Amino acid sequence: MHKQFEQRQNKIFVNNMVESAIRIGLLIILLVFTYDIIKPFIIPVLWGAIIAVALLPVTNRLEVLLKGRRGLAATLVSIAGILILMSPFLTVSGSIYDGITHITHSLQQGSIELPRPTEKVANIPLIGGKLYEIWALFATNLEKAISNFLPEIKALATTLASILGGAFTSLVVFIIALAISGLFMANSEKITATLQTVAVRTAGEQATEWTEMIAATIRSVLVGVIGVAFIQSMIIGASFFVFGIPGAGLLTLLVLVLCIAQLPALLVVAPVMFYVYSTSDTTTTTLFVIWALVGGLSDNVLKPMLMGRGVDIPMPIILIGAIGGMLFAGIIGLFLGAVILSIWYELFVLWLKRSPEAKASIAEIVDQE
Questions:
Q1: Rounded Cα distance, 83 and 328, in Å
Q2: Angstrom distance (rounded) from CA 57 to CA 219
Q3: Residue 266 in contact with residue 277, Cβ under 8 Å?
Q4: Is the C-alpha dihedral spanning 121, 127, 131, 132 positive or negative?
Q5: How far is CA 240 from CA 18, 103, 252, 276, in A?
Q6: Is Membrane among this UniProt entry's keywords (predicted)?
Q7: Which of 107-111, 204-208, 238-242 has the lowest mean pLDDT?
Q8: What integer best gives the mean pLDDT of the chain?
Q9: Max CA separation in the chain (angstroms)
């Protein structure tokens, strides 16, 4: 009797296990298909949510001026964001396109002329002689120079094409994200209430504090890091255009990338300073150097003004997030990675701060028992 009962129990257990495995397998298949369907929309929606959190205070102020018309306020903020984004991007892209078109046409006509190096280049310690020789070769015999450095030129062209393609894709994603952020801001109260409910169900009562901290972190990073990087790159980029630096658009884009990654813009500006010094007179060089240095040092003034209070993100966190995000999702990941990693850092710090309180509560319960 006991043996039959045991066999019956084993059979029930096996049946339940098989049934559970089938259900779990079907659920995994459903989740995989769902992920594949929504995957193209994850980054635009996530970025739209981040932008909405950052711009929500602006929408709230505009809503008051428009006498409570929140939908109109959110739409105007989104349109303004798209225009602000497209204006410098179109200028930079136009500069890059014109430069490539001009170089291609000149190469086809055989009429391209490069400025010859001056003795200033040859007098540079260590690298001056070799640099003068290579520069002079390109200036006097372009065909031979291209033939000698063809692998390097191909690699550079491939890299530039990849950067331009990624920049265009990022622009489209940004525009879509700004449109999505308008929808989020127009319905912010309902969305906020829903998210807070989900957060509390997931992480407990402390989730309310966490959501407030996440919003503060997003605004701090976007305004204090990405916003400052954008302004700084525009100041430096303007000097490239005013002084007629070749490839000004591409150089401006590189400066923006470096500034977001919290790396010194001098990595791009220094070679340009050297180029201006080698090809222009003393007055032009002095004016350019002053302008570029003011742009390079402007973050020291802008960050204290724009960085949100109470949120202090270490530079390595921004650097790792920006570079990792760029490797994962291209140029848009440069922005997204810095924000997401900063949020995780602040959550971790907040968790550490709450640990002693939790330990103290547990100690009190143990003492009472």
A1: 27
A2: 10
A3: no
A4: positive
A5: 68, 18, 8, 10
A6: yes
A7: 107-111
A8: 75
A9: 106
